[in-house]
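Side project, low priority. Logging it here so it doesn't get lost.
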Amino acid sequence: MTKEEDTLANQNRRILSIDVFKGLTIFLMVFLNTIHPYDDFPAWTKHAGDFGLTYADLVAPFFVFMLALNMNISYKRRVEKVGKKRASLRFVRRFLIFIGIGLLLTIYIDLNGFYFRWGTLQVLGFSGLMILPLIELKPFVKLLFAIIFMVLHQLILLTPASVIIYESIEGGILGGFSWGSMLILSSFLAEGLGKGKEYVKRYFLYGGFICLLIGIGSGFIWEISRPYISVPYILISVGVASIFYYLLYFIFEERGINYNFIKKERIFSVMGKNAFILYLIHMLIAYTIYTIFPFDTPSIILFPLAIFHTAFIWLLAYYLNKLEIFIII
């Protein structure tokens, strides 16, 4: 197969490793979101706090990386089908829907009125709008923009505005530069998928290690912080996501072609095929759980509930896939 044929094949088929990556992210998110607000769980199951990093801090960046993997491919497909203008409008609409649904899901109501808050869907929508004008630029131009936005955000953290970012959920609107830089950097690494198999290792594995090492090194200058969404946090998160995706690519796209049971994986990939709608359903269930069970509920009750919640979402994903129902916006 020539390089051009390999690239075309990648662009016109569903990539199993992406579905598995998305499914694993949803799977982890459902379980963690069920237990994380509750007191009777160890610290390692929660976000690190002001500084530091736990695996729970990687879930949101994995969603950003997931968006980059999808967007690089789906945008090119859409342009080929309907042209650049209509494709761009489609993505603008999608990201505005993300923001709108996110605002509805995170609305807070009390005796004084109701308030709109920031959240994961708003982060994805805002970041998507940031990258859309850059999506067709050369990879290293994207990388340059990612660096500029990271540096800009880190400079903002040196001002009194850092308090607003810290006190806002997901950094609020001011944190948009950081999440946007994370998506642009992820999109740069995701360029490896469109260039053929020989580039996948260079971008995802080597690129991921470079991000991880620079992130760890910069952590000695600026601390690793999810609340502040600092540069080390961005680089380490993207590095981990990139390396992890490469391992999945290696298993499902390279080694997997020789094993039928790998090619027919139906555990995590079924969740990845309907990630958005499963996220929405999960959030509605999670908020219901938060309302019913007080935050001092014992873990012996909540742990089985988290397992049941995760199993329910998986079963829903399984039957949607079996019925060939795939909901996209």
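Brief comment: DSSP finds 14 helices and two strands in the chain.
Revisit when time allows.
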